[in-house]
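I am writing to request your help with a piece of structural work I have in hand. A protein sequence and the structure tokens that stand for its backbone fold form the material at issue. Please examine both parts with care and let me know of anything in them that strikes you as inconsistent. The record follows directly beneath this note.
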Amino acid sequence: EVLDYAPTNPEYRHAYEVADDETGADFHQEEERDGDQTQGSYSVALPDGRTQTVTYYVNGDGGFVAEVTYEGEAQYPPEPEGGYGPWTGPIAGAPHIVRGEYSTPTRTYITPDSSEEVETPRGLYSAPRA
């Protein structure tokens, strides 16, 4: 037996807002749902000085529909003296690799001491005895 714990008509409404002068974080979100109908919006302060707002709704199986708007005019910092060019400094997150010099190892061979007397094997062998 399979039990269905989903509410027959889900309903909720929630909202939150963050405005932090120290970090510059400024955003909010609100949403409400009544059964298959969901609608809401959220906005965020963009780094260029504008505010982006997304208003959305979902109607049952109709899919997610969103409208995005912007308030204000984008502000950009002045071009640096000398203009823009390729970055020649370190790349953030890239490992700093130090390549050392490599030299092949020198091989040393030791000649065995040949003053030791060794018996020379005989070249004649007899058949095994039965």
About this structure: The two ends are 86 Å apart (CA to CA).
